[in-house]
Amino acid sequence: MFPSCIPRLRPSAVLVLLALTGLSSCADGGNWKTLKPQANAARELVSLDGIWNFALPTSIDLEEDKAWTKNIPPSLQIPVPASYNDIFADQNIRDTSKRRNILRFDAVTHEARVFINDRDVAGHIGGYTPFEVDVTDIVAPGEQFRLTVAVNNILTSQTIPPGNVEVDETGKRRQLYNHDFFNYAGIARSVSFYSVGEVYVDDITVTTEVKDQGKGATINFSATTNKDPKSSRPRVTLFDEEGNEVASASTLQGSLELSSVHLWQPGVAYLYRLRVELLSAKGKDTLLDSYEVSVGVRSVEVRGNEFLINGSPVYLTGFGKHEDSPVRGKGYDPAYMIHDFQLMKWIGANSFRTSHYPYAEEVMDYADRHGIVVIDEVPAVGLNIGLSAGTSTDEPTLTFSEKTINNQTREVHAQTIRELIHRDKNHASVVLWSLTNEPASNEEGARAYFEPLVELARELDPTRPMTFANVMYATPEADRIMDLFDVMCLNRYYGWYVNTGDLASAEIGLEQELNEWQDKYGKPIIMSEYGADTLAGTHTVIAVPWSEEYQTQLLQMSHRVFDRIESVVGEHVWNFAGFQTASKSIYRVDGNKKGVFTRDRKPKAAAHALRTRWLEEGVRKGQGNVTAAA
Ligand code: GCB
């Protein structure tokens, strides 16, 4: 059904994606303070997912091409959502008058310019967070229009993640970057139209306080509206999972007290629903808007070297993941998403890190619903010029300098933090913000770069602890920023990049280093990465690198060490599954193979060994393990 008030795309929907363009003007005007669209009595929602026409630009200068002024022929077409890269076999509702129609993109990687007919209507920088544009005054209800999206996949020192473009001997531009996953680009997540009335809720923030040893709770809420709050009357209602009303208020900001509460617990999720309604200011209770958020009541705390959820120490088991699948690239795929969560349940994982960028909102909703703990990471990966595919170059590097990662980069990085915290602040599953992965925290300039970012994140969310994933070269002596954070996430490759093939030495080295971190800071340690590339089907009697036996034994060696270090409160194997990486690296054969599942999600021997430790043996007895995902 096509609702009356929303404009229509022409049947021969003409949408264009431009790869590797240099967008001359800065993309702005896209509102990133967007609530995930909902369909209810007051809001309409129409999906624009489907088959879009596709074209590469004829010029690097978008203005020269003005592709949005033309109809793009359907000779090349792409599915939305999906990364476009692996698709081709070619390298190269109601009263119509007073409603607002909003066009929302869940993610366009990395930069978008949006055109309606010949008009440039919005832009957004940042490939993994949503943005929207109010098109009410641009296209009339029922009118047909042409929607064109220009996508820029270029990474520079001033983008997050960073990269640089080199021109080779043949004059061809080549994108280089320091992170170890393929630079997938495109309209990676859903596109939708939604409509709201003249007055609507434009933001909701919910925080929870657990009281009386978990028997009671306070739910603090704060909603804002697009217009003067006096233009409507709020009604706030909290429902339990059975749909019973358990508390209510008639203010936009306030607290709801619960004398008996179902806590959101890892592995045993319980979600209340907080509904914020706007009613007409005078006269009858006419519904102007309605929006619901799921609320998991839980507390998160770091105390000494313990990580506590609802006052009890937890031990995290799981993975660093990627949004990556054959053909779709980084395109949102509900089948892969749910299959991945099922495999995590099968193996006994109770948590994961959104390495190395914010994942689709559907992933976060699923984690909330099923009690899976999430370390939520911004796309600040590769702020480390000397590092490539886990290996270091011998050249001296200067990551933080006026010419490389500079104040401008930091402002873009700050914006990724604002957008992630804004998007994910109400997710009970999110217990830690990760502000970067493997930066050159051992280099000069690191502290000056990161200190303001940590301050910003703490201002934006005073309720959750902060972390970053530390790289192996930034040892306890060399690292300059660890004291700014609450939890020490360590990426370590003993037995792989160091002590390759020598697990006995690796065990000594790993234990020594973890003891140093523990003694120096006394904070909880989460092993955010450890693992070994493994070619599925390679078996050896004597465990050698790349064999399934070696991967299993490296993990077992690491676990012996973790079990001896009191401050270790979590183990996230790198990686959940194989994933695609940049084509230029000789360290990678058709991608990174450290997954305990292959890219098409088949278990390697290590998966069975992990299942034995995480489910059958039970890790670290007495540590208050959280149960595996429900
Ligand atoms: C790391 C990075 C991760 C890489 C991994 C590896 O330290 O954080 O992005 O994929 O090493 O396999 O080298």
Automatic annotation (TrEMBL):
GO terms for biological process: carbohydrate metabolic process; glucuronoside catabolic process. Residues 1-29 form the signal peptide. Pfam families: Glyco_hydro_2, Glyco_hydro_2_C, Glyco_hydro_2_N. Gene3D superfamilies: Galactose-binding domain-like, Glycosidases, Immunoglobulins. Its EC number is 3.2.1.31. InterPro entries: Beta-gal/glucu_dom_sf (IPR036156), Galactose-bd-like_sf (IPR008979), GH (IPR017853), Glyco_hydro_2 (IPR006101), Glyco_hydro_2_AS (IPR023232), Glyco_hydro_2_cat (IPR006103), Glyco_hydro_2_CS (IPR023230), Glyco_hydro_2_N (IPR006104). Keywords: Glycosidase, Hydrolase, Signal. GO terms for molecular function: beta-glucuronidase activity; carbohydrate binding. The keyword Transit peptide does not apply. The keyword Transmembrane helix does not apply. Belongs to the glycosyl hydrolase 2 family. This is Beta-glucuronidase. The lineage of its organism: Eukaryota, Fungi, Dikarya, Ascomycota, Pezizomycotina.
